[in-house]
Design brief:
By secondary structure, this protein is of the alpha/beta class. The protein folds into 2 domains: about 170 residues, Peroxisomal Thiolase, Chain A, domain 1; about 140 residues, 3-Layer(aba) Sandwich (Peroxisomal Thiolase, Chain A, domain 1), CATH 3.40.47. Helix content is about 35%, strand content about 25%. It has 10 helices and 13 strands. The strands form 4 sheets. The protein has a 5-stranded mixed beta sheet with strand order 1-7-6-4-5. A 4-stranded mixed beta sheet has the order 8-13-12-11. A two-stranded antiparallel sheet has the order 2-3. The radius of gyration is 19 Å and the shape is globular. Bound molecules: oxa(dethia)-CoA. The site of oxa(dethia)-CoA has 20 residues, from helix 2, helix 6 and helix 7.
Length: about 325
């Protein structure tokens, strides 16, 4: 049986670094509050020439170079994003044009912060029926365009960036198992409205098309849901935390990750954290982290890596892959 195995990683962060002190000038907040409640110190914010698809395409170029796969050889491009440049065409189609991957078909995945995990699972399913496929999967966001910069509850949390992987079929490494969930009943705890409808019959009352969030509810759900999905996945695969080389979680809040480590007894050196530098980059956070560890030679052959995430929808889950 063939599985999707990562053969190259890449990432791209906008140039501009925004610190907590910078945010003190914009909203009623403090470096002390943001650091103690979230662990975030800085985030990257996109500027001119750094649209979502620009970041995505640059991350893709790096991943393709590492994988030694020319863009023309790609069969499929998937972009996990909730902040596409346009509603139509997809960000994936923009990336295809940017990198010149004429042979590939391309589409976006919207599963909020869990989009990259959902995308890896999907890539694995494609590979299982067509092992020769070369798939580019990107998580890419410009959330700075969709947060209300006057709302201190949300604007301090998010950042922009992109991470990418190239996957192809392997019989002895790659994705081993996944465990994905959604619960649409909880949509109103974390959501972003779309623009006003042009059809008067379909117009809804809106509070602007910005990110809306019930922070404490999301926090509690994030800890519980990730803990549960990890426990179930490890149990099903007959593995324990000791069998894992590294956990790469969605980077939302260091307190969420500390609680998760505490409940599952994950040693500090097995839990990868970079939310302090980039904030919450939604679907991009896991591939950015994966590329960072990979480029520091932090992953070794046969390492068992666990990825986990939660986000708007709600969507959440965990995925195991053998490096
Ligand atoms: O990828 C998923 C995306 N979302 C998340 O991951 C969010 C998960 N939730 C969280 O990370 C946390 O709930 C937050 C960091 C958003 C908030 O932390 P908290 O400890 O849950 O604080 P809180 O919302 O209960 O607010 C406590 C106080 C409030 O003041 P009062 O009512 O106690 O007077 C807030 O108004 O902190 C105030 N507050 C702030 N103060 C300074 C809220 N935001 C800020 C701020 N600076 N930026």
């Amino acid at each position: 049986m063939n599985h999707a195995a990562v053969i190259g990683t890449g990432s791209c962060l906008p140039k501009r670094i925004v610190s907590n002190r910078d945010l003190e000038q914009i909203v009623d907040t403090s470096d002390e509050w943001i650091t103690s409640r979230t662990g975030i110190k800085t985030r990257r914010i996109a500027g001119a020439g750094e649209e979502n698809f620009h970041l995505a395409a640059e991350a893709a170029r790096q991943a393709l170079e590492m994988a030694d796969v020319p863009a023309q050889a790609l069969d499929l491009i998937l972009v996990a994003t909730i902040t596409p440049h346009m509603i139509m065409p997809s960000c994936a189609c923009f990336v295809q044009a940017e990198i010149g991957a004429e042979k590939a078909f391309a589409f976006d995945i919207n599963a909020a912060c869990s989009g990259f995990l959902y995308g890896l699972d999907l890539a694995d399913k494609y590979i299982s029926t067509n092992p020769d496929m070369k798939i580019l999967l990107i998580g890419s966001e410009t959330l700075s365009a969709r947060v209300d910069w006057q709302d201190r509850n949300t604007c301090i949390l998010f950042g922009d960036g992109a991470g990418a992987v190239v996957v192809s079929g392997s019989t002895n490494r790659g994705i081993r198992a996944s465990n994905l969930y959604s619960d649409g009943r909880l949509w109103n705890l974390l959501y972003m409205n779309s623009a006003d409808s042009m059809n008067p019959e379909l117009q809804q009352e809106q509070e602007g098309c910005y990110m809306q969030m019930s922070g404490p509810d999301v926090f509690k759900f994030a800890v519980r849901s990730m803990e549960d999905s990890i426990r179930r996945l490890l149990h099903r695969e007959n593995l324990s935390i000791d069998d894992l080389a590294l956990v790469i979680p969605h980077q939302a809040n260091v307190r969420i990750l500390n609680k998760l480590s505490e409940r599952l007894s994950i040693p500090e050196d097995k839990m990868f954290i970079n939310v302090d530098r980039y904030g919450n980059t939604s679907a991009a956070s896991i591939p950015i982290a994966l590329d960072e560890v990979n480029r520091k030679n932090g992953l070794h052959k046969d390492d068992m890596i666990l990825l986990c995430s939660f986000g708007g929808g709600f969507t959440w889950g965990a995925l195991l892959m053998q490096w």
